[in-house]
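Following up on my earlier thread - several people asked me to post the actual chain instead of describing it. Fair enough. Here it is, all 331 residues.
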Amino acid sequence: MAQSVHRENKPMSDLPKRVFIKEEGPREGFQIERQPIPTERKIALVDALSDTGLDYIQVTSFVHPGKVPGMADAEAVVAGMTPREGVRYAGLWLNQQGLIRAIATGRLYLEGKLTLYASDAFLRRNQNRDPQQQLAAQPELIKMYQAHGIPMRTGFVTAAFGCNFEGDVAPEKVVALVGQMRSIARDAGEDLSLIGLGDTMGWATPERIRRVVGMVQDANPDVELSLHLHDTRGLGIANAYAGLQMGVQHFDAAVGGLGGCPFAAHAGAAGNICTEDFVLLCEEMGIETGVDLEKLSECAVLAEEIVGHPLPGKVKTGGSLSALRRRISGE
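Reply from S.P.:
Thanks for posting it. Predicted structure:
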């Protein structure tokens, strides 16, 4: 118990020196837009993001076009983008059919991932499965990854902090799910070294971040954690800051604050934390990101133009503090 308390109250000196950002705007953002986004505009945003220093961009999702029409052009987006050396371009899939489609493009960074849900109700809504069916599907995914030589590294718990259909999620359940994923991977001769915790419907608070992250860290001291934080209730950046205080180095984010979850059944189902706002936070705390904030802000403006409505990101309009300091000093 003492160890868990220690982790939940880490001193500021435990802040990471570097963070690693998975940019998910092109995928998570365009999947929820009501009006069709032209394929060439999606490609334009991906290509612009490629020039910012981001080294991981999730460009599309290989899901059923009838359920998520905004991703019906997944293959065309991948075929049309201009890859930049040093950037990993990834896709999302929820089942074996989606994985086969991603493999067939021949242009994506492929990494095996296991996914379990902390909310049974959200699992039924999102994948039309019960928990036993989801568990049973994971070994089959591993076999497919292995058959295609795709490395296994990541496990992910969806709705790890709460759910619009079930309410609060007990941290103990999240810890148990992580243990199940690691056990499934080990039984197949694999090992998970990165565990993602998803606040899919915006239930996390800084205190809940500290509690859940601390308990998962205590039970899995040999793995790294990543956070996927939706900003539905305006606490996204505060939750990211709490994660940084816990030593988390891996974060998902979306340029401009694009996106949301099409299955969350919430009118304000916001997307991930805004990439440029998170980069500003890290920049001002002395944490390296490898990202050019000015170029990223330009991408946020482009994203807003593409979707045709205001996006929640603040830096794209307020500007970075480093740019303001240069202007004040006359540089």
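The two ends are 53 Å apart (CA to CA). That should answer part of your original question.
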